[in-house]
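A quick aside before the break. I want you to see a complete sequence-to-structure record at least once, exactly as it would be stored in a machine-readable document. Don't worry about memorizing anything.
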Amino acid sequence: MNTMNTPFKPRRYNDAQKAEAINFCLKEKLSCAKAAQRLGLHPSSLSRWLRQVTLIKEKHYPLIVAC
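That is the input. The structure line, written in C-alpha cells, reads:
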C-alpha cells in the first residue's frame, strides 16, 4: 500500500483523554513537549488543550488563574 496517496486522518481524543494528558503535564511539572513525548502525543495538541483550559479558567475564575 502506498502511504503517500493515503489521506492523513488525525487521531481523535475524547475529553477524558485530554484531561488525563493535561493533568499528567501539570502534576509532573513537565513542559508540553516532554509530556507529549512521554504520552505519544503531538506537542502542539497538548499545548492547545492546555491553552484552552487556561482560557476557560480565566473566563470563569479570574482570581484562580495563577494556581
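Two observations worth writing down. The mean pLDDT is 83. The two ends are 50 Å apart (CA to CA). We'll return to this after the break.
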